[in-house]
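Kindly inspect this one:
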Amino acid sequence: MYPEEASRLYLEDLGEVIADADAKSIVPDAVNKLEYNFFTPQPVKDARAYYLHYIIHDWSDGSAREILQMQKSAMKPGYSKLLIYDHVLDDQKCPSSAAAYDIAMMVHLCGQERTEKQWLALFDSVGLRVTKLWGKPPGTSSVIELEVPLSWETNIRGLSL
């Protein structure tokens, strides 16, 4: 769209995934490819947006907190957004297929599908505030928008006072 502008879009993944993407030429040249493990500090600082696609549900709350902390440490408070595309289950009534998937995640990966309340508790535990949720339950695929509140703001259940 703006070929004179340098790319500021990064694809971050493990080295072997980046190498495979390069070998198959499936990522446009305008996209910067960066080897990255999300359990290490996020190398791209103060970006406008970070995106995790079906990542957090693979992990326990403890590991999920580590991943979220690594993203948070790079985010500029009040500016950067973390977008998470993942399942959000209804707190009381979820489709049986989603419940079965939750059990499979637990058995195979020690991960879990989370309800909206579980997501909110997880984000609150690392100091991230939910600013928007698209695709609220009972549908399971949702986008959750998060930010690091400015230091003078109070974070109570995702609302700023």
Observations:
- Helices lie at 15-24, 61-72, 96-109, 116-125.
